[in-house]
Description:
single chain, 444 residues, Outer membrane efflux proteins (OEP), two-stranded parallel sheet, 8 helices, 8 strands, 15% strand, elongated, membrane, transmembrane beta strand, coiled coil, cell outer membrane, efflux transmembrane transporter activity
Amino acid sequence: MKRIVLIFLCTIGLSVNAQVKTLTLKEALTYALQNKAEAKKSKLQIENSEYQIQEIRSRALPQISANGNLTYNAILQTTVIDGAAFNAPGTTIQAAFGQKWMSTAGLSLTQAIFDQAVFTGLRAARSTREFYQINDQLTEEQVIERVANNYYTVYVQRDRLTLLDSTYANTTKVHNIVKGQFDNGLAKKIDLDRIVVKLSNIDTERQQVKNQVELQENALKFYMGMPIETQIEIPSEEFEATSAALTETPNAENRTEYLLLKKQEELLVYNKKAVEAGYYPTLSLTAGYNYIGQGPEMPWFKKPKDGVYWSDYSAIGLNLNIPIFTGFGTRAKVRQADVEIRTLQEDMKDTKLSLDLDYRNAMTQINNNLVTIENQKENMRLASEILSNTKNNYLQGLASLTDLLDAENANQEAQNNYSRAVLNYKIAEVSLIKSKGELKSLIK
């Protein structure tokens, strides 16, 4: 009985694991944005930026701390004083001041009144948040691009496998015809051997493509952040390859990559100002309140009758620090910060050129692939027609087996070329959408 239950439970587990998840491109992209590690980490960076901002703001708020100590003076320090103070002129007196035990407890407060570095940090706080928000957007676009390209590749690989299955089925029919002819003495053994070799080659290619499909699916699931063991199915609707609308070159300065560099430049400018704050004086307010107990015994919980006396004291002050000469250290730091800004500005120029190039190349690839698709579609139609006619001629004895096998090879090659052309088009289409800064339109 237990064995039957165990087998039943295992069967249920296998059936659950065998469930297939159907994924459209939009669903795949949405899943990736919710589950891929890079997307999650960029969201955490935004969250962390809020804590960084709070840290900067804390420097402008009062800093309050409590302190306390307990001291045992094993040997009191003596001080040599003139005896005249004690009506003993001409003598020297050694006197020990203080008590064996001393304990203090108190509160201290520090408030920055003027600190240029703090003020600059507060102004930079908003830019820090915006930097991470733009970085999150860029991360999402990168995830979308990788998943879309891999999604299309999986589709085409599966389409290729379907083609091979169809070719294998058709070749099997030819094999059966040739074998029947051979059995009746109407075909040569070499013809039968050739068709057997053809079937074996197709089957070998099928196994290789199956392996490629599995590897590509695993890569897609990895880029989506999906468990590798999940079974996925991609809808079989044909990808449309339509002519892309010719538009003016998009403004590269609106692209996320460029906006991120622009925001980084802004942060570097604030960093330079923070370094320049080293030239400015600082002014702060300090205040403290303390309670001290002294006596021959440990002061805690003791009173004057025990020889322990408690008293309080307090102080309030202003601290002014004016930098006069720092050995040109501040000047060197300012110049380093300026070099960082100018270096980034060169990167921005190069990035703008690169983004313009991406758009031009994507448009060229789109147009070239559209021409290739139309040509391959016509080739595929002709190859299919030739194969059909050759098969009829072969059955009527008007064509050789060589002609039939050549027609099958040409038909298979034409369909593979068409699939590759569609894949190249879809990848170029993703590049074009990216160059326009519209990758998120794929999930709408």
